[in-house]
Specification:
mainly alpha; 0% strand; 18 helices
């Protein structure tokens, strides 16, 4: 399939996922996890509270699951194409995931510690063993990973066996040390800080993000194996009632969780409190998947089609745009650029994310008029296929 023949809706899905991920990542780039509570307490005004509520209701735990779901779907689609042509695919995907792993490690080393590409690469290889499973079995596996928190016990065991706390190096900086390093430090000093940040966040990566990602990979594989084409009119009709029901139910619960439940004694009940958070977690993921149905519905109805197509340009260059987020963060928040680390309000971070995405969309559209692939997509493709692929577009 040539780039011109690509299905726009799938790229719109990917671009939309990239859009939402940046709104979350920019807040983390702007203030490390260890400092966020203290920093956020400075912003008690109505506007900041509104922005935080918008992020909680419409962004947190919605877009990473979507991106993971689409990654699993993409793996399956490529494998099915290989199978239809009677071509081997294990070597192909081993190279593909190995290259992605290296890109992820470089991303961590030179740009930002919050990379998930190396995680996707490892889980992607594990997912190859699941492609032949029955669709219902895949759905059950995904549900088990999301519902039953057995990995919480693994996390406790992992942390108990650490002779040196993983966050020791990061905590040694102190809040002011982190601020001065990122605003004023040399680039090599920021790299060292990012290493400590990565190590401190390793438990969350292994025992929160990894199970969620693998569950969504599995659902994506199930969608790829299904006889219903993702985003098609038949797919819309089949999932219409379940989606509306899930959208209403999750919206009600998330509103209750955020606005009513914290004032209740039930919220502080020792046995019930984990249940409320688990239901919120599941509601967020379900609500995020409802986004895909809504986008497909708008697309087929012809509503805001010109706006939706802008997401497709970003989706075509999803890997390059994902890394570009970190480049933007490096410029905005460190001594390599504007040194704005921990100086912006929630509103300013939100506005910067929106402006950055609009610019990314325009840049992506321009790029695709001159080149067939994004720069990193091209490198990834060359390594995967073991040959130099055409890059520039040939003038007609």
């Amino acid at each position: 399939m040539t780039p011109a023949q690509r299905e726009p809706l799938l790229d719109i899905f990917r671009g939309f996922a990239i859009f939402g991920i940046f709104f979350i990542n920019i807040t983390i780039m702007h203030c490390l996890f260890i400092n966020q509570d203290a920093f956020s307490s400075q912003f008690q005004d109505t506007t900041s509270e509104l922005i935080n509520r918008v992020l909680q209701l419409f962004f947190y735990n919605k877009f990473f699951p979507i991106f993971s779901f689409l990654f699993g779907f993409g793996i399956t689609s490529q494998i099915i194409k290989k199978q239809l042509k009677n071509k081997p695919y294990l070597g192909f995907f081993t190279r593909r995931m190995a290259a992605l792993f290296v890109i992820g490690l470089l991303h961590i080393s030179f740009f930002w510690s919050g990379d998930v590409l190396h995680l996707y690469a490892v889980l992607g290889l594990l997912s190859l063993a699941m492609v032949r499973l029955n669709v219902r079995v895949l759905i059950l596996i995904a549900a088990g990973l999301l519902v039953f928190p057995f990995y919480d016990n693994l996390a406790e065991l992992f942390l108990e066996n650490q002779t040196t706390p993983l966050d020791k190096g990061l905590l040694a900086y102190g809040e002011q040390g982190v601020i001065s390093t990122l605003r004023e430090g040399e680039y090599l000093e920021t790299i060292q800080l990012r290493f400590h940040e990565y190590m401190a966040n390793l438990p969350m990566l292994l025992f929160y993000l990894a199970p969620m990602a693998f569950a969504m990979f599995t659902l994506g594989i199930a969608a790829g194996r299904s006889t219903l084409t993702l985003g098609s009119k038949q797919w819309l009709a089949y999932f219409k009632k379940p989606t509306i029901f899930a959208l209403v139910l999750t919206s009600i619960y998330r509103a209750v969780f955020l606005f009513c439940l914290p004032e209740s004694e039930l919220y502080r009940h020792e046995l019930l409190r984990p249940l409320w958070f688990k239901l919120m977690f599941l509601s967020d993921i379900t609500f995020g998947l409802c986004y895909l149905w809504a986008i497909a519905w708008l697309w087929h109805r012809g509503f805001i089609k010109k706006l939706l197509i802008q997401f497709s340009y970003v989706g075509r260059l999803a890997l390059s745009n994902y890394i570009l987020h970190s480049v933007i963060g490096l410029f905005l928040f460190t001594n390599l650029g504007l040194s704005l680390y921990q100086t912006l309000s929630p509103l300013m971070c939100f506005v910067l994310a929106l402006i950055s995405f609009v610019l990314q969309s325009l840049l992506s559209k321009w790029w695709l008029t001159h080149y067939q692939y994004g720069p990193l997509e091209w490198v990834w493709r060359c390594i995967t296929y073991k040959q130099k692929m055409p890059f520039r577009r040939v003038a007609c």
